[in-house]
Automatic annotation (TrEMBL):
Name assigned to this protein: DNA 3'-5' helicase
Superkingdom as given in the UniProt entry: Bacteria
Catalytic activity: Couples ATP hydrolysis with the unwinding of duplex DNA by translocating in the 3'-5' direction; ATP + H2O = ADP + phosphate + H(+)
Sample GO molecular function, one term: hydrolase activity
Gene3D superfamilies, A to Z: P-loop containing nucleotide triphosphate hydrolases (3.40.50.300)
PANTHER family tied to this protein: GENERAL TRANSCRIPTION AND DNA REPAIR FACTOR IIH HELICASE SUBUNIT XPB, RAD25/XP-B DNA REPAIR HELICASE
CDD domains the UniProt entry points to: SF2_C_XPB
Domain Helicase ATP-binding: 203-394
Family: Belongs to the helicase family. RAD25/XPB subfamily.
Enzyme Commission number(s) from the entry: 5.6.2.4
Annotated organism of origin: Candidatus Thermofonsia Clade 3 bacterium
Domain Helicase C-terminal: residue ranges: 448-602
Lineage: Bacteria, Bacillati, Chloroflexota, Candidatus Thermofontia, Candidatus Thermofonsia Clade 3
Database matches in InterPro entries: ATP-dep_DNA_Helicase, ERCC3_RAD25_C, Helicase/UvrB_N, Helicase_ATP-bd, Helicase_C-like, P-loop_NTPase, XPB/Ssl2_N
Alphabetical keyword list: ATP-binding, Helicase, Hydrolase, Isomerase, Nucleotide-binding
Length: 624
């Protein structure tokens, strides 16, 4: 029996919302507990609001959390007794995961409910019934193996996420070993959490493993987890990535840390079309559609060469659409999925997966699938498709846990609020709503703040990143710094990144191409001048650019400059939700306070810098 204490930080409400007091000695413990099974919705100064959703509970259940553990955490930190309906709802939601199982018996794909009543409910459901080949018993149905993904998607929508135990094809064999010493001459071994993530995903090669998502912070070595999964599978592997830079980084890491050779690894991008036992492809190439003459846009993608995020008529969500979406056969490069007997498909940055790739993924459920991401947040609401088609969350480590252990850098986050000039305030007031954010985000007064911050970090390795090219061009000119955008050729990007890694240049200005998959381990300051509206995933990715542990133990600094009392400030609050959930706190500075601000150098009680996969790495090498 728990004794409820008024000094506890939580108030659990009957609508599944949870209020968390920030100014409370138990705040950190309660926040870390909530993050495992609830989603942060709002984070004002004093009380944060979480939501316990069915999907968050199903992900928790798939990761091994029980209803008893979840309820015990809520009881432990709650001010008042839990509403009875919350206890029932949590037990019911967690209990629904796995009540339906997919199995393969004598070549027949079966859907098995755990009792006849549930079987009858399924049989009568208008979305499930058309997918049934035959009903073998009150609780057992046979389906077409080709419909495996579609059935799982429907079952999730019905509210009974299936546990898929139907197994996987082995794929073409590909034998290789992990190197104890990298080609760069550094000792190499998996970090403990990387090994744990690969073990949980693989599940000893059983049908209980083989599909799922590993969630780790940027800089924590998600690529290494992917390589560890490849090593366990020992089979032909298709790796899907956000862009060509990411393709090259995967190739470098695989060659550096495994015995695979160059002739076994192929690049399938806009520049090359190689199909080899390990093939690394970009999402943009896969979604190329000749009728459009360019990569189809999805939320999070675009044809602006920056991986833009404008809504697109071809965007597909779980809700039905009246407009016709292109058939998979209309995407010529989707044939890559059938070009070799793949045993493993890795989805790098799975939170960015375009809708057409979801659709082909529904049809290749017999292949093992691994999603890698820093955050399961999707701004398009398709987290359910990640769960049902790629797999549930199998492994997750809070960012602050890895920070405390020294595997990622300690970061200080600051939001700097800048006013509009008097003449711009009136123009903002009369600007149409669709243009208000752009107007506020491109506030010219931000440039002065950037200059002040650069003066305070003159000896640091600084990235300045934003959304709008004219704004970035002004900053690059003001700082005499190189600018990298989607129009910068890949060869030139790689040259500038290498110069930054080697210390030849100490500052880079980046457009959205800097959001993910750039390998700049010594960057320790990031200044964000504009972003993609209220994108939580983008905020997490951008902080991740400076989270590689620093050899000298220096703090990382993340500054986001926003225009106060505008949509820019409102969107910033939403952008920060995920990182707040992970334990990061944004200190607010106003423009008049910046001249007197002195950045801290070292974290108090910080862990010493850890050895990166076995050894402290020289400048210019890293593993992520």
């Amino acid at each position: 029996m728990y004794s409820y204490k008024p000094e506890n930080p939580l108030i659990v409400q009957s609508d599944r919302s949870v209020l968390l007091e920030v100014d409370n000695p138990y705040y950190t413990e309660a926040r870390d507990a909530l993050a495992r099974f609830a989603e942060l919705e709002k984070s004002p100064e004093y009380v944060h609001t979480y939501r316990i959703s069915s999907l968050s509970l199903w992900n928790a259940a798939a990761a091994g959390l029980t209803a008893d553990v979840i309820l015990a955490d809520l009881e432990k930190y709650s001010k008042y007794p839990l509403p009875e309906n919350i206890k029932v709802d949590i037990r019911d939601a967690v209990g629904r995961y796995g009540r339906i199982k997919l199995t393969l018996e004598d070549g027949h794909m079966l859907v098995i409910a755990d009792d006849a009543a549930l079987g009858e409910e399924l049989a009568r459901h208008r979305s499930f019934a058309p997918l049934v080949k035959s009903r073998l018993s009150p609780s057992t149905f046979e389906i077409d193996p080709a419909q495996r993904g579609h059935v799982k998607r429907v079952l999730l929508q019905i509210g009974y996420p299936a546990e898929d135990l139907a197994g996987y094809v082995s794929g073409a064999p590909l034998h290789f070993d992990l190197r104890p010493v990298t080609l760069a001459g550094q000792p190499f071994a998996l970090r403990h959490y990387q090994a744990d993530a690969a073990e949980v995903y693989w599940a000893q090669g059983s049908a209980a493993g083989g599909s799922g998502v590993v969630v780790l912070p940027c800089g924590a070595g998600k690529t290494i987890v992917g390589i560890a999964a490849m090593h366990k599978a020992q089979c032909a592997t298709l790796i899907l990535t956000p862009n060509t830079i990411a393709v090259r980084q995967w190739m470098r890491e695989i060659l550096d840390k495994t015995t695979l050779t160059e002739d076994q690894i192929g690049e399938y991008s806009g520049l090359k079309k190689e199909i080899r036992p390990v093939t690394i492809c970009t999402y943009q190439v896969l979604t190329y559609h000749p009728r459009k003459g360019a990569a189809l846009k999805d939320r999070g993608w675009g044809t602006d060469k920056d991986g833009g995020a404008a809504p697109d008529p071809h965007f597909e969500s779980m809700a039905p659409k009246k407009r016709r979406l292109p058939r998979i056969s209309e995407y010529p490069h989707m044939a890559l999925f059938n070009s070799m007997d793949w045993g493993l498909i890795i989805y790098d940055e799975v939170h960015l997966l375009p809708a057409p790739v979801f659709r082909i993924t529904a049809e290749i459920q017999a292949r093992r699938r691994l999603g890698l991401t820093a955050t399961l947040v999707r701004e398009d609401g398709m987290e359910g498709d990640v769960f049902s088609l790629v797999g549930p969350k199998k492994y997750d480590v809070p960012w602050k846990d890895l920070e405390r252990q020294g595997w990622i850098a300690t970061a200080e986050c600051h939001e700097i609020r800048v006013s509009l000039a008097d003449e711009d305030r009136m123009e903002y007031a009369v600007t149409g709503h669709d243009q208000k954010y752009h107007f506020a985000a491109a506030n010219p007064r931000k440039l002065q703040i950037v200059s002040m911050l650069m003066a305070k970090h003159k000896d640091d390795d600084v990235l300045i990143i934003g959304q709008y090219i004219p704004q970035l061009e002004q900053i690059a000119q003001r700082l005499d710094a190189p600018l990298i955008t989607g129009d910068t050729p890949v060869r030139q990007r790689e040259k500038l990144f290498q110069q930054f890694r080697e210390g030849q240049i100490r500052r880079l200005v980046l457009s959205k191409v800097g959001n993910f998959s750039i390998d700049l381990p010594d960057a320790n300051v990031l200044i964000q001048v504009s972003g993609m509206f209220g994108s939580r995933q983008e905020e997490a990715q951008r902080l991740g650019r400076v989270l590689r542990p620093k050899q000298n133990g220096l703090l990382a600094h993340f500054y986001t400059i926003v225009t106060r009392d505008t949509l820019d400030q409102e969107y910033a609050a939403k952008r920060q939700l995920f990182l707040t959930e992970q334990g990061y706190h944004y200190d607010i500075l106003y423009e008049e306070e910046v001249p007197g601000f002195t950045p801290a150098l070292m974290a108090m009680n910080a862990a010493p810098p850890r050895r990166a996969n076995g050894a402290l790495q020289p400048r210019g090498t890293a593993s992520d």
